[in-house]
Design brief:
single chain; mainly alpha
């Protein structure tokens, strides 16, 4: 029996996120702010564009990291096996970019963490059993429960959690799910 590196994109993402978190601890969050979070910054700064993708690797605390990685490591390998590494990397990159752009346009708050990607994976996973002209009831229930919770939290909770990133991530997962299912 041997241990295998079964899901290269997912495992690399989790490892790089852990390294980013540890660097943040040792630099008193300097590296987290400079490289692994997105916020209102000059469009002339090249790091502004880098952070549009790397903010999903940053986490505010070990608890934040663990909460994201539990779902990421649960769903990611299943999705990477089903859709392939390239498509999963595309979902991660597109979700990171779209959440960064929308957050930059509509909010002055900073953004970091993989929760948008996690929610993309949740929706994408719920769509894996789509068949032509059928919508699984589980997909409808996940979307209703998920959207309901995020809208409620967005309206009534002030907890520094970006519900918009969750919603955008879910939308990215749905778009990917529809795109991947139409290619069959």
């Amino acid at each position: 029996m041997k241990i295998t590196f079964n899901s290269p994109i997912i495992l690399t993402f989790a490892i790089v996120s852990a390294i980013a978190l540890i660097l943040g601890v040792f630099t008193n969050d300097w590296t987290t702010k400079v490289f692994f979070s997105t916020y209102d910054s000059s469009l002339l700064n090249p790091l502004t564009y880098v952070r549009c993708f790397t903010h999903v690797l940053g986490h505010a605390s070990f608890s934040h990291y663990i909460n994201n990685m539990l779902f990421f490591l649960l769903l990611g390998p299943i999705l990477e096996e089903k859709y392939g590494s390239g498509r999963i990397l595309l979902v991660i990159g597109a979700t990171a970019l779209v959440t960064a752009i929308i957050n930059g346009i509509f909010s002055s708050n900073g953004l970091l963490g993989a929760s948008g990607v996690v929610f993309a994976f949740i929706i994408l996973a719920s769509m894996t059993s789509f068949k032509e002209r059928e919508i699984p009831l589980t997909f409808i229930l996940i979307v209703v429960l998920y959207l309901g919770r995020e809208v409620f939290n967005g309206l009534f909770s002030f907890d520094n959690i970006s519900q918009s990133a969750h919603l955008i991530g879910g939308a990215c997962g749905a778009i990917a799910g529809f795109a991947f299912s139409s290619e069959k």
